[in-house]
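Reminder to self: tokens first, then the designed residues, so the page reads top to bottom the way the pipeline ran.
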């Protein structure tokens, strides 16, 4: 059975530079990455309580105790993420996009802010399997984040992504305390 799809055409004015002036700049320089790093570090007082709520709830759901984190651990995790230049520039881009992302009525932009935030959580967490765990945890953390009416739509997703990525990256879970039994020693 054939499916009907919508075709969207994007028509740019002949003077596309006039349109560009209306859009925010997304120029990523060392200074821009540093500014995003500082902004993320400053969010610790907002993000750490979300991390600890998520850790407590998930620990209870999985029948284990998960260590809470403090601001110092949050700062250390942010430092580690931004110390890796390749990761830092991509994290900075996602942070900048989410912080300013707004869609009138929010719901039409629901997919894009969820997509960007889920990827941000994964980048912060690190490599697999932590990436996947952070993506799943983002959706749980997102339940606890609600911006004010005048906040951009992406801001609450940004906080949830920071919380999910950091909570996944940091130790505190029993399964992280020992080496995997599946490694092959030669």
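Designed residues (186 positions):
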């Amino acid at each position: 059975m054939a499916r009907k799809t919508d075709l969207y055409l994007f028509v740019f004015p002949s003077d596309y530079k006039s349109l560009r002036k209306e859009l925010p700049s997304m120029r990523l320089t060392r200074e821009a990455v540093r500014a995003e790093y500082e902004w993320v570090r400053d969010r610790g007082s907002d993000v750490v309580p979300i991390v600890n709520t998520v850790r407590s709830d998930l620990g209870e759901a999985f029948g284990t105790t998960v260590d809470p984190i403090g601001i110092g651990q949050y700062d250390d995790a942010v430092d580690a993420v931004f110390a890796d230049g390749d990761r830092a520039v991509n994290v900075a881009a996602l942070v900048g996009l989410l912080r300013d992302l707004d869609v009138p009525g929010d719901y039409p932009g629901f997919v894009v802010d969820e997509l960007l935030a889920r990827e941000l959580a994964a980048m912060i967490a690190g490599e697999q399997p932590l990436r996947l765990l952070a993506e799943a945890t983002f959706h749980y953390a997102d339940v606890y984040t609600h911006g004010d009416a005048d906040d951009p739509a992406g801001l609450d997703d940004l906080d949830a992504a920071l919380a999910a990525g950091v909570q996944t990256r940091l130790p505190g879970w029993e399964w992280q305390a020992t080496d995997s039994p599946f490694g092959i020693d030669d």
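The chain has one domain: 27-172.
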